[in-house]
Design goal:
The chain is α/β, with parallel strands linked by helices. Helix content is 42%, strand content 21%. It has 3 helices and 6 strands, in the order αββββαβαβ. The protein has a 3-stranded parallel β-sheet. A 3-stranded antiparallel β-sheet has the order 2-3-4, covered by helices on one side. The relative contact order is 0.22.
Length: 98
């Protein structure tokens, strides 16, 4: 499981770096789509700041890429369309089988 996670982060880091270099004028920022309403993964506090496992992962990816992490709150159903039209650069949101 740990090897899969590390492999996923490596692939994500490489592909995101290529996307940033090719598609973004400001390659110092990564716009990360988060939901903010799925505890304990993504929670928006009373102060408006996000916390949780997904947020920690987003910050870890940004740190690895050496870019600023801009968290963008998006309704879960709108995340993939937002990614397709380049409103965000990356989605970090947990899913569960229903």
């Amino acid at each position: 499981m740990k090897a899969i996670f590390i492999s996923l982060l490596f692939v994500l880091s490489f592909s995101t770096t290529q996307t940033l270099a090719a598609d973004t004028k400001d390659a110092t920022k990564l716009r990360v789509g988060v939901e903010g309403g799925y505890a304990p993964f993504s929670i928006k506090g009373a102060d408006g700041k996000f916390s949780g496992f997904d947020i920690d992962i987003a910050h870890a990816v940004c740190a690895q890429l050496k870019v600023d992490c801009v968290l963008v709150e998006i309704n879960f159903d709108s995340m993939i369309p937002a990614l397709k039209v380049r409103k965000i650069d990356l989605i970090v949101a947990s899913m569960a089988i229903t």
